[in-house]
Model the fold of this input.
Amino acid sequence: MDNVIEKLKGGLIVSCQARPGNPLRGASHMAAMAKAAALGGAKAIRADGPDDIAAIKSVVDLPIIGIYKTQPSPEIPYITPDFEHAKAIADLGVEIVAVDATKRPRPDGTNPWDLIARIKKELGVLVMADIATYEEGVLAEKAGADIVATTLSGYTTYTTQTKGPDLELVKKLSDTLRVPVIAEGRYVSPQDLADGFEAGAHAVVIGKAITNVTFITETLIKEARECLQKK
Done:
């Protein structure tokens, strides 16, 4: 298991996901995305849901960070929010299960720290804690999380979204935690990637800037117009 984490060091993790309404949504599309990312040098793939995960595992030989999303919300956990969702993806053979480890109340009344401990004990997989604050990162490590990720900084009601990545949080966690810290959330450029490593990240996750064609197209058009206006 430690070897899996070591393989991620200094690498780019590509998040292959597509929300409802995205023309690329679907297991076959995500599997193709993951294969392309692997050819480009990705160290791991982050994927959502049993169908996508199974399809991706059939075409790439990379560690999979599995998640199982429910309806996105700033108020309640939705990234692998309970044990049943975690088991569904762990049973597919993912190396890492990522869970929402924020302090937000859960529909089933459980807490993220007990969830982390139970997954470790009963499913035998590595656990990545997606957190929003430094305190949540500390608590996740104490609960037994193998990795802490800054995924949810700026996506809860009690955190403020920075314009770019929350590099300050990455640095603070990296400076104090014993477990590896993965930088995730609003990393969209080569500079962001470099800045994440500079802040102490073990690895960096990039999603929409690689796999969301709509976002990439809109961003290129917007930034090109801004460049022209400055001339």
Q: What stands out?
A: The two ends are 53 Å apart (CA to CA). The beta strands are 11-16, 44-48, 64-67, 96-100, 126-130, 147-149, 181-184, 203-206.
